[in-house]
Structures are given as C-alpha cells and as structure tokens.
Structure of APC family permease:
Amino acid sequence: MIDSKKNQLKKSLGLSFNIAVLIGGTIGVGILRTPGTIAGLLDNYWLIIASWLFGGLFVLIGANSYAELATMLPKAGGSYNYIKRAFGDYAGFLSGWFDYITNAIPPAFYCIVISEYTIILFPSLNNYGTAIAISLLLAFVLLHLTGVKNGSAIQQITSFLKVICFVALVVACFMYSGIKLAPIPKDNSFFQIGLLFGFFKSLQLIIGTYNGWNSVCFFAEENENPGKNIPKSLYSGVLLVVAIYVLLNIAFFHVLPIETLAKSNLAAADVANIIFGKNGAIIVTVISIFSLISILNAFMMIPPRILYGLSRDGFFIEKGTIVNQGGTPIVALLVSSLFSLFLICIGSFEVLFSFAAFTSIIVWGLAYCSLLKLRVTESNLPRPYRSIWYPWTTIIAIIASLALLIGFVYSDPKSFIIIVIITLISYPLFWVLNRKKK
C-alpha cells in the first residue's frame, strides 16, 4: 500500500503563481491568429470588439462560480472534484477523464508549434522539427521532476515576459499614425441572419482563446491560502487577459482596415510588418515563442494534478498518487508526458482539438450545475468565498454553456458522436474500477 500521508501535495504556491498560471495557461498564439478569421466572419469593427468583450464576460461570470467551488473544495484536479461531490462517482469519473484529455492534448501541440517557430528563426534546423519538439518536452519533464518551486518560478518569469511583449506590441500599434474607424452603424445590420451566424461562430473561436482561464483551480490543494488567493487571482487574471485581448484587437484595427485583416492568416505578423518593416515577422515569431513557452509550462503542470486526483479516488492506478520530495506527482507527470510524446510522434491534432472544445464546455457546465446542487444539499460546507449575485450569475453561465454546446453540436456533429460513444463505453470501465475499489 502507498502511504497517503507521505504522498500529499505541498502547500507552496501563492497569489503570484496563481495569476501567472492563469495568464500563462490562457494567452497563446490564438490571439495572434484569430483576429483575421473573426474579421472575415463579422466585417464590422464594433461587433468584433463586442464579441471579445462578450467572451470575456462569459469567462468572468464563470470565474465567479469557480471561485466559490475551488475555495469550498480546494483539492487537486479542479472541476472533477465539484462534479463528483454533487452528482456522484460516475459523473466525477467521466468529467475527470474528459477534463484530463482536454488538458493533456495541448503540451504536445505547443511543443510542435514552438519547434515550427524556431525553424522560422533558424531555417537550417528544418529537418529537425520532431527532434526539437521531443527535446523540448523532455527538458520540461526534467524541470518539473525537480519540484514545484522551479516550475512555479519559470511560470512567473515567462508569464511576466509574455505580458511585457503583448503590451509592447499594443503600444507600438498605437504609436503608428493609424486609420479612421468606421462609424457605429445606425441601421439594423447587426441583426442580419448571416451576421448572427458569424457572431456565434466567432464566439467559438474567442472562447477557445480564453480556454485556460480556470487554471488556478487545478492547484487549489497546493495553495498557501486558497480562500483568499483563488478569488483574487481568478478575477485579476481574467480581467487582465480580457484587457490584453480587447486592446490587441483595437490596436490591430488601428493599423490595418478590416478588409485587409480579414485576409490575414496571422494578423499580428501583417500588423508588425507595417510597423517594424521587414523585421516584423521575426518580432512576432519571438513574441509567439515566449507566449508558447509560458503556456507549455502551465500545461505541463495541469494534467498531472487531474491524474493525481483521479488516482487518489481509485479512478486510475494507485501509484498515480506518488509525490516526490519536490512536491511533483511524479508518476502522473511521467504518464502524461508519455501521452504527449505519443501525440508528438503521430502529429494529428485536428480531431483531438475539436473533441477538447466540446469537453471543456461540458465540464464547465457540469461544474456550474454542481454549485447549484451543493448550495442546496451541502449548505453547511465552509465557503470562504460566495459567488456574487448567486444564483443568477450561475444560471446565466449554465445557459451560455448550453447555447455554446448546441452551437458546437451543429458545427461539428462528428465530435459529438465520438463523445456519445466514449460516454457509453465509459460506464462498464467505471463499473470494473468501482468493484476493484470495494
């Protein structure tokens, strides 16, 4: 038997790490790419800015509910714990594995993308893309094997550098002479069917760039003061991310008209080429690498925490709860890294990312529902923080999640069918594991 008292996560993380992991786990290269696609869908400056604000408001409302959940049940693994407590072991098992897969896919993707950007800077490395990606993964595995404090330090440094890079890009855009904005339309063009479809399609992309906003909840068990630090970091981190995203979009439109931006696959590079000349692409590539290193570090830390929580409750191997002297769930880290290595070698992410978009919304929605249930069934649970304007904010978050899920089913029915099949297969597996526990 494994000594459960010995294999406990260490309370060594504070507010600065929480904010760093939220920013680091959210802001990636998506914000550098998506403005062009969204400009093509909406073709209206004011509606585009409103879309980013709407996405930010959705996340902020979600943060309000998660702040109560994470401080009420400050355990490793995040959402899975709340859903399990509210709806039972099977709901916890299914949501935990959905959440794990969602968060275990990104490390492989980010390793590959960083290697691609490195090759852009150093073309002579063109034949070594996979080797660079694998080397990067191994380097981060070794870093996190040394302990939580080193991973935390890297997260705070890289997240700070990321924010500096994005702020510098925004300032550079506004220093450019700029173009005139179109006036706010006075007709009812916002309500055209095509534009409404583009609005909801844009929201799917925008929610994708905000994904990672609840990163701090996975580390609640390791936080020195979760009751105070988690709500502070959720609100301040989300507001900072929303501000950066909205300001970047405004800055891009200050440099390029919508018609030009709509044709851009990498909006930031086209903007930088105008501001910085021929060095623009290099500058954006460097910003992208800084951004990706920060998000990679965050996602190297998140999946092992989910796997640790699942293992502790008997939903994975018992050795998944082993924690080394540095506070790292070592077996969970190695298993997650092997999964990432496998994905790097096969290099196919499209289907997996479609699946991840679905599972994120499902898990968030179930977490919001669990808050409603636990307020009724376990009203005596200690609640260091209580959701503002409860229950209305939580109900709005549930309705918004359901609307997004319906939109995803409409736009990507194949992924929905895969999720239904996985759900059907999962119960016999849960039943076998449950019998072994008894």
Q: What stands out?
A: The chain has a mean pLDDT of 87.
